Amino acid sequence: EPEVTQTPSHQVTQMGQEVILRCVPISNHLYFYWYRQILGQKVEFLVSFYNNEISEKSEIFDDQFSVERPDGSNFTLKIRSTKLEDSAMYFCASSEKGFTEAFFGQGTRLTVV
Amino acid sequence: QKEVEQNSGPLSVPEGAIASLNCTYSDRVSQSFFWYRQYSGKSPELIMSIYSNGDKEDGRFTAQLNKASQYVSLLIRDSQPSDSATYLCAVNPRAGGTSYGKLTFGQGTILTVHP
Q: Which residues of B touch A95 (CB under 8 A)?
Protein backbone atom coordinates (compact mmCIF):
# COMPACT_ATOMS: atom_id res chain seq x y z
CA GLU A 1 0.00 0.00 0.00
CA PRO A 2 1.43 3.43 -0.90
CA GLU A 3 2.58 5.48 2.04
CA VAL A 4 4.23 8.74 2.93
CA THR A 5 7.75 8.25 4.23
CA GLN A 6 9.74 10.70 6.35
CA THR A 7 13.38 10.88 7.34
CA PRO A 8 14.90 11.06 9.83
CA SER A 9 12.56 9.65 12.46
CA HIS A 10 14.32 11.61 15.18
CA GLN A 11 16.67 14.58 14.98
CA VAL A 12 18.43 16.41 17.78
CA THR A 13 19.91 19.79 16.94
CA GLN A 14 21.44 22.71 18.75
CA MET A 15 19.59 25.98 18.97
CA GLY A 16 20.44 28.21 16.02
CA GLN A 17 21.30 25.34 13.69
CA GLU A 18 19.56 24.64 10.41
CA VAL A 19 17.62 21.43 9.94
CA ILE A 20 16.08 19.84 6.89
CA LEU A 21 13.26 17.36 7.27
CA ARG A 22 12.58 15.11 4.33
CA CYS A 23 9.47 13.48 2.98
CA VAL A 24 8.51 11.29 0.05
CA PRO A 25 4.78 11.78 -0.63
CA ILE A 26 2.55 9.18 -2.25
CA SER A 27 3.51 9.11 -5.91
CA ASN A 28 0.25 10.11 -7.60
CA HIS A 29 -0.60 12.81 -5.06
CA LEU A 30 -0.46 16.46 -6.08
CA TYR A 31 -0.90 18.26 -2.76
CA PHE A 32 1.73 18.20 -0.04
CA TYR A 33 1.64 19.46 3.52
CA TRP A 34 3.64 19.94 6.67
CA TYR A 35 2.02 19.85 10.08
CA ARG A 36 3.53 19.91 13.52
CA GLN A 37 2.42 18.69 16.92
CA ILE A 38 3.99 19.98 20.09
CA LEU A 39 3.83 17.36 22.84
CA GLY A 40 0.34 17.23 24.34
CA GLN A 41 -1.10 19.75 21.90
CA LYS A 42 -3.16 19.81 18.72
CA VAL A 43 -1.88 18.95 15.28
CA GLU A 44 -1.23 22.33 13.65
CA PHE A 45 -1.10 23.17 9.96
CA LEU A 46 2.13 24.76 8.73
CA VAL A 47 2.01 24.89 4.94
CA SER A 48 0.46 23.41 1.83
CA PHE A 49 2.26 23.06 -1.49
CA TYR A 50 0.73 22.55 -4.90
CA ASN A 51 1.99 22.97 -8.44
CA ASN A 52 5.51 23.74 -7.19
CA GLU A 53 4.52 26.63 -5.01
CA ILE A 54 3.18 27.37 -1.56
CA SER A 55 -0.61 27.53 -1.75
CA GLU A 56 -1.33 28.35 1.87
CA LYS A 57 0.66 28.86 5.05
CA SER A 58 -0.11 29.48 8.69
CA GLU A 59 1.13 32.21 11.00
CA ILE A 60 3.61 29.70 12.41
CA PHE A 61 5.30 29.39 9.01
CA ASP A 62 7.43 32.52 9.24
CA ASP A 63 10.66 33.44 7.43
CA GLN A 64 12.57 30.80 9.37
CA PHE A 65 10.70 28.09 7.48
CA SER A 66 10.87 27.12 3.84
CA VAL A 67 9.70 24.21 1.73
CA GLU A 68 11.01 22.77 -1.47
CA ARG A 69 10.34 19.99 -3.92
CA PRO A 70 13.88 19.51 -5.22
CA ASP A 71 12.99 16.65 -7.55
CA GLY A 72 10.01 14.56 -8.60
CA SER A 73 9.73 12.61 -5.38
CA ASN A 74 11.08 14.52 -2.36
CA PHE A 75 9.44 17.31 -0.37
CA THR A 76 11.49 19.08 2.29
CA LEU A 77 10.94 21.42 5.20
CA LYS A 78 13.87 23.61 6.22
CA ILE A 79 14.11 25.47 9.49
CA ARG A 80 16.92 28.01 9.15
CA SER A 81 17.76 28.83 12.75
CA THR A 82 16.07 26.50 15.18
CA LYS A 83 14.63 27.68 18.48
CA LEU A 84 13.78 25.68 21.56
CA GLU A 85 10.09 26.15 20.80
CA ASP A 86 10.51 24.40 17.44
CA SER A 87 10.80 21.11 19.32
CA ALA A 88 7.85 19.05 18.12
CA MET A 89 6.75 16.17 15.92
CA TYR A 90 6.69 17.25 12.31
CA PHE A 91 4.36 15.40 10.00
CA CYS A 92 4.39 15.40 6.23
CA ALA A 93 1.15 14.55 4.46
CA SER A 94 -0.11 14.31 0.92
CA SER A 95 -3.44 14.13 -0.85
CA GLU A 96 -4.60 13.47 -4.37
CA LYS A 97 -6.81 16.55 -4.47
CA GLY A 98 -7.16 19.57 -2.20
CA PHE A 99 -10.36 18.40 -0.54
CA THR A 100 -9.74 14.66 -0.36
CA GLU A 101 -8.14 12.47 2.28
CA ALA A 102 -4.67 13.41 3.45
CA PHE A 103 -2.29 10.62 4.42
CA PHE A 104 0.38 11.27 7.00
CA GLY A 105 3.93 10.06 7.26
CA GLN A 106 5.25 8.56 10.47
CA GLY A 107 6.72 11.88 11.57
CA THR A 108 10.08 13.35 12.53
CA ARG A 109 10.62 14.12 16.18
CA LEU A 110 12.71 17.29 16.31
CA THR A 111 14.42 18.11 19.58
CA VAL A 112 16.18 21.46 19.87
CA VAL A 113 18.65 21.71 22.74
CA GLN B 1 -10.69 32.00 14.32
CA LYS B 2 -11.92 28.80 12.75
CA GLU B 3 -12.30 26.21 15.48
CA VAL B 4 -12.85 22.50 15.76
CA GLU B 5 -13.98 21.37 19.18
CA GLN B 6 -13.96 17.90 20.68
CA ASN B 7 -14.52 16.57 24.17
CA SER B 8 -11.03 15.72 25.36
CA GLY B 9 -12.29 12.82 27.45
CA PRO B 10 -11.04 10.44 28.44
CA LEU B 11 -13.94 8.35 27.23
CA SER B 12 -13.93 4.90 28.74
CA VAL B 13 -16.10 2.08 27.35
CA PRO B 14 -16.16 -1.67 27.97
CA GLU B 15 -15.06 -4.05 25.28
CA GLY B 16 -17.91 -4.78 22.87
CA ALA B 17 -19.73 -1.50 23.56
CA ILE B 18 -20.38 1.40 21.19
CA ALA B 19 -18.04 4.37 21.54
CA SER B 20 -19.46 7.72 20.45
CA LEU B 21 -17.11 10.58 19.63
CA ASN B 22 -18.33 14.08 18.84
CA CYS B 23 -16.97 17.13 17.08
CA THR B 24 -18.30 20.59 16.31
CA TYR B 25 -16.84 23.12 13.93
CA SER B 26 -17.31 26.83 13.58
CA ASP B 27 -16.81 27.52 9.85
CA ARG B 28 -20.15 27.02 8.14
CA VAL B 29 -18.62 26.71 4.65
CA SER B 30 -16.58 23.64 5.60
CA GLN B 31 -17.07 20.81 3.12
CA SER B 32 -14.73 17.94 4.00
CA PHE B 33 -14.54 16.15 7.32
CA PHE B 34 -12.18 13.47 8.52
CA TRP B 35 -11.58 11.25 11.51
CA TYR B 36 -8.06 10.19 12.33
CA ARG B 37 -6.79 7.81 14.99
CA GLN B 38 -3.52 8.59 16.73
CA TYR B 39 -1.71 6.17 18.99
CA SER B 40 0.67 7.69 21.50
CA GLY B 41 3.84 8.89 19.80
CA LYS B 42 2.58 7.96 16.34
CA SER B 43 1.19 9.85 13.38
CA PRO B 44 -2.50 10.41 12.57
CA GLU B 45 -4.02 7.48 10.71
CA LEU B 46 -7.06 8.14 8.54
CA ILE B 47 -10.18 6.22 9.56
CA MET B 48 -13.06 7.91 7.77
CA SER B 49 -13.89 10.78 5.48
CA ILE B 50 -17.36 12.27 5.03
CA TYR B 51 -18.49 15.00 2.69
CA SER B 52 -22.33 14.85 2.67
CA ASN B 53 -24.98 15.06 5.34
CA GLY B 54 -25.99 11.72 6.78
CA ASP B 55 -24.24 8.53 7.75
CA LYS B 56 -21.28 6.75 6.20
CA GLU B 57 -20.38 3.27 7.35
CA ASP B 58 -17.09 1.41 6.99
CA GLY B 59 -16.83 -1.83 8.92
CA ARG B 60 -17.22 -1.09 12.63
CA PHE B 61 -17.01 2.65 12.06
CA THR B 62 -19.86 5.04 11.21
CA ALA B 63 -19.34 8.73 10.59
CA GLN B 64 -22.29 11.07 10.85
CA LEU B 65 -22.44 14.62 9.48
CA ASN B 66 -24.99 17.34 10.11
CA LYS B 67 -23.91 20.54 8.36
CA ALA B 68 -26.91 22.53 9.64
CA SER B 69 -25.81 21.83 13.22
CA GLN B 70 -22.09 21.96 12.28
CA TYR B 71 -21.62 18.63 13.93
CA VAL B 72 -19.76 15.48 12.96
CA SER B 73 -19.53 12.28 14.97
CA LEU B 74 -17.84 8.90 14.88
CA LEU B 75 -19.39 5.72 16.23
CA ILE B 76 -17.24 2.68 16.88
CA ARG B 77 -19.26 -0.52 17.25
CA ASP B 78 -18.00 -3.61 19.07
CA SER B 79 -15.14 -1.60 20.57
CA GLN B 80 -11.88 -3.48 21.08
CA PRO B 81 -8.95 -2.73 23.42
CA SER B 82 -6.90 -2.07 20.26
CA ASP B 83 -9.23 0.87 19.54
CA SER B 84 -7.79 2.65 22.58
CA ALA B 85 -6.20 5.79 21.11
CA THR B 86 -6.77 9.49 20.61
CA TYR B 87 -9.36 10.26 17.92
CA LEU B 88 -8.86 13.45 15.98
CA CYS B 89 -11.56 15.30 14.12
CA ALA B 90 -10.24 17.30 11.16
CA VAL B 91 -12.07 19.79 8.97
CA ASN B 92 -11.15 21.25 5.62
CA PRO B 93 -12.64 24.72 5.82
CA ARG B 94 -12.91 25.37 2.10
CA ALA B 95 -15.16 24.22 -0.68
CA GLY B 96 -13.79 21.66 -3.12
CA GLY B 97 -12.75 23.90 -5.99
CA THR B 98 -10.95 26.42 -3.83
CA SER B 99 -9.38 24.04 -1.38
CA TYR B 100 -5.66 23.49 -1.07
CA GLY B 101 -6.23 20.89 1.61
CA LYS B 102 -5.44 22.68 4.85
CA LEU B 103 -6.92 20.74 7.75
CA THR B 104 -7.92 22.21 11.08
CA PHE B 105 -7.74 19.62 13.84
CA GLY B 106 -9.58 19.34 17.11
CA GLN B 107 -7.63 18.62 20.26
CA GLY B 108 -8.66 14.97 20.13
CA THR B 109 -10.68 12.65 22.34
CA ILE B 110 -8.84 9.97 24.29
CA LEU B 111 -10.70 6.67 24.09
CA THR B 112 -9.98 3.79 26.43
CA VAL B 113 -11.61 0.42 25.80
CA HIS B 114 -11.28 -1.82 28.84
CA PRO B 115 -11.60 -5.62 28.70
A: 101
CB of B95 less than 8 A from some CB of A = yes
Cα–Cα separations (whole angstroms), residue A13 to A19, A39, A109, B31: 8, 17, 11, 39
- Asked if A48 and A75 count as a contact pair (C-beta separation under 8 A), the reply is no
**A40-66: per-residue pLDDT in tens?**
999 999 999 999 999 999 999 999 999
Interface residues of A toward B, Cβ cutoff 8 Å, are: 31, 33, 35, 41-45, 48, 50, 55-56, 58, 89, 91, 95, 97-107
- Spell A33-61 as b/e; 16+ CB within 10 A means b: bbbbbeeeebbbbbbbbbeeeebbbbeeb
Q: CA–CA separation, A42 vs A24, rounded Å? A: 24
pLDDT per residue rounded down to tens, chain B (115 residues): 668 999 878 999 999 999 999 999 998 888 899 999 999 999 999 999 999 999 999 999 999 999 999 999 999 999 999 999 999 999 997 755 566 789 999 999 999 999 9
- How many other C-beta atoms are found inside a 10 Å radius of the C-beta of residue A13? 16
Q: Taking the alpha carbons of B11, B6, A100, B101 in that order, is the dihedral positive or negative?
A: negative
Exposure letters B16-28 (e unless 16+ CB within 10 A, then b) = eeebebbbbbebe
Q: Which residues from A are below 8 Å from B105, CB to CB?
A: 42-44
Q: Are A110 and A14 in contact (CB under 8 A)?
A: no
